[in-house]
Amino acid sequence: MTITIQNSKEYLEALEQARNLLQTSHEKLLKSANRTSIEFRLSLGQLIEENSLRYDWGKSVLERFSEDLLLHFPNTLGLSPRNLGYMRQFYSEYKLHEQQKQKIY
User: Fold this and answer.
1) In this structure, is residue 1 part of a structural domain?
2) Phi/psi of residue 11, each to 5°?
3) Cα 79 to Cα 68: distance, rounded to the nearest angstrom
């Protein structure tokens, strides 16, 4: 009986190790991408919040801001005026949470 390389114990063990490496790398990539996405939304929300307060930006400015961002990044999802408003809200709530944490500690 002939054992092919693809059916050998060594090959199957190496294949399993490769699968594990790929799975681990994929999980790390997703975590990193998620962290970057959250940091981006938080930072953009901060930028919008600060400028809204400083320069009295309203809904029409967010609409224009959205249009201009999409001109520069046409294939980017999530830059609608509504989403920009959500990012601002996300930053505001995060900031309040951080301030409350500091009071406790």
Assistant:
1) no
2) -65, -45
3) 10
pTM greater than 0.90:
no
What is d(CA 36, CA 86) in angstroms, rounded to the nearest whole number? 17
For residue range 46-59, list pLDDT tens digits in order.
999 999 999 999 99
Domain count, the chain: 1
For residues 52 and 89, the answer to whether their CB atoms sit within 8 Å is no
Residue 90 included in any domain: yes
In the structure encoding, which two tokens stand for residue 67, read together?
């249009």
Show the tokens assigned to 2. 């002939």
- Contacts of residue 58, defined as CB under 8 A and 6 or more positions apart, other chains included, come to 52
67-76 pLDDT tens trace: 999 999 999 9
